[in-house]
Queue: 3 jobs
Job 1
Amino acid sequence: MFDFPEALRIHAGDYVADFVNWLKTTLGFVFDAIGNFVLHLLLYIQDFLLWLPWWSFIIIVFLIGWWLRTFGLGLLFAAMLFLIGTFNLWDHMMLTLAIVLTSVIIAVIIGIPVGILMATWKTIEMIMKPILDFMQTMPSFVYLIPAILLFSLGVVPAIFATLIYCAPPVIRLTSLAINGVSKEMVEAAQSFGSSRWQLLMKVQLPQAMPTIMTGVNQTTMMALAMVVIASMVGAEGLGMDVLQAINHIRIGDGFEAGISIVFLAIIIDRLTIGIANRFTTQK
């Protein structure tokens, strides 16, 4: 009487599973190609980061922090990185950074054009908005399921799940920024005979760049927030250290890995905000 009738049960999950299996069977070669591309991009970035001597990386971050923000912040970033090194987590930090950078690069390459299309055509905006809502409200653990089914275990499904989770901010803010360019400026450019491409490249994108960089900042932070979840499908780095510390109740190791992720997040956040401020100043 009080239980919901079993006869009305809809097995929606079965249809989704069948669809994913169909994708894997029919378009398996496409996912293999995507997986190889992502893996090669990750390995190039990872090899470069690991090739850099630790002291040179600290100096580079210090100089960038000084240039973008202040001398004191540059020094603070260098101290944070040095502290991560003293935890014996330098290589793991670089692996984490490689995963984050790979995810953000792909998100920006896909997200900015999609955001421009949303701002240009209302039909695309109507289609994309519910998809972006879905991507942002779905629990991040759920993304691991199709990622494992399509790409098996390893770092590629980790990047795929991270990409779905972190891409919406850059898409939304790119669309918002393009729509926010003053109409008078757009009409003035059109009155001088600018083509749609010239209008976009010489007026709209330069004006929208500070907001777009804010979207890149949000995308980067969300990618970093996925490192622990991504480690559940085999992504190595600081997230794996946190996961292993939880599994074996090693409080000290978990603290060192966790605080290293926090340091990395602070450095990336402040540097990307500094880049966005530079664009605002130039504007």
Note: The CA atoms of residues 178 and 205 lie 7 Å apart.
Job 2
Amino acid sequence: MIRIGYQRTVRRVLIGAASLVALWLLLVPLIAIVAQAFAQGVQPFWASITDLYTVKALLLTLLVAVITVPINLVFGVTLAWLITRFSFPGRRLLQTLIDIPFAVSPVIAGLLYLLLYGTNGWLGGWLADHDIQLMFAWPGIVLVTLFVTCPFVAREVIPVMQVQGRLEEEAAVTLGANGWTLFFRITLPNIRLALLYGVVLTNARAIGEFGAVSIVSGAIRGDTSTLPLQVQQLYQDYNIVGAFASALILALLAVLTLLIKALLDRYAQQHTEGE
């Protein structure tokens, strides 16, 4: 019997089709961003990326990612451990609730947070009385970003932990391992690649989130405008070079994230082979 993958013609067609799709969907847009960013030369590009509002938008974007990723890393691992290692009433419901950010539009999520924490929201009066401002400030941006990115780590880790099972962990507990030893010596080595994918996805979404952030931030330039919002504002101002220069920064951040992931993958593989 001849398998489809062993037929030379079929294999070449599939490889060619995949290459064309990747070229059209990934490489061409990147080339277009670079071309538009440098359309008027290096000097306008440099002036655009060193613009004060763009720099502040970049710093705010990085701040949101730096806060969001560690929180969702801990949250995702805890949630995955809870779902895969314990049986309790409502376990299936909890597993379903994880997917709510996937099902709810980010714009709707932003509106819900505004309804809850805004000046006229359910908790807005209490927050105002205690001089706490969440909406139209960076804490609100962090809150909605946590919401839209919370499933990524858990969704990557849960299937791996389900396949891994509990036998190794139960054996370690029998031999006297405590909780931290159990996690760092048994569980973490088995889920580290899934964790890496989850962190990469969380970071990418945190950096590029637009819909929910646009609702709760107010998009105040130099204050609550993140880099994706800055791209839109510059484009609406007909500052094409500035918009594509900011978009190029976002693309470079994404590439940098992938490079870090590849290096960590390589390190993890070498570490595994070394063992």
Note: Residues 83 and 91 are 6 Å apart (CA to CA).
Job 3
Amino acid sequence: MSTNIEVQLQGTKTEGRLNRAWALVKRDWFLYLLLVPFLAWYAIFVFKPMYGIQIAFKDYSVFKGISGSEWVGLQHFQDFLQSENFLRVLKNTLIISFYTLLFVFPAPIIFALLLNEVKNSFFKKTVQTFTYMPHFISVVIVAGIVTNFLAPTNGLINIIIDKLGGEKIYFLAVADYFRTILNSMSIWQSTGFSAIIYIAALSGVNQELYEAAVIDGANKWKRTLNVTIPGILPTIMIMLILQVGHLLDVGYEAIVLLYQPVTYATADVISTYVYREGIVNGRYDMAAAVGLFNSVIGFILIIVANKLSKKYTESGLW
């Protein structure tokens, strides 16, 4: 008897929740309607392609299709882990990602802090406009600009070196220079646009804290260290977690446009390996397996980074 009463109470509560939810939907239906294009985009371009992940576990044939290809289990993952390229691409991916965290990630934070100190609004807006612009240029054009600047015969850098009495260098054919060139290009292209979020975070710092710090005799450096940076620390940590999630997901577009076989030793990363296997060699199953391996590691890293962030800064994505 008591069990029936509990079931009836549970059903009443569920019905009440559904009624409240439906009332909210009816009240804000236009706002929910705005979500439809984004949900459709995710359904078509993010979730639907996940159906193709299964080719990572199949001996995929374009003639048989996904459903007609035979299952091979973890064979492609084993082939990748045992291949002679595995250590090279993993090492290069980690090193380039580490350089990105060390140099590219802090650049917009430092830029936002410097811009925050500028009092002339015209100069500030002008600088912001010029630094945002490279973000909207296609990576193909940016890579073309870099290639022209570093050209061995008529590149601007080599012309300057030649005028100074030095010997011209074919920078893009020297493996040791590749990571520096790639990260410098990333800083130039992304710093201004990435600084937007930090500039927005800086505008939310309580001004009374600055006034209290001035009364206590703190100079600009101490105000930055004790007021500004702690004020934007949650934003920095969230951006850092997102960056860590992409630790193995080094963008391949710029690398593919800049690297050459002679620079594979330092330039070949997991993403470019996937590109060569999938597009150039037509091994879609192997490319899917490597891409899935990359995604799983990135997923684990973002969970670990989120837990560490919540433990030490009480900020996290969830």
Note: The longest strand covers residues 58-59.
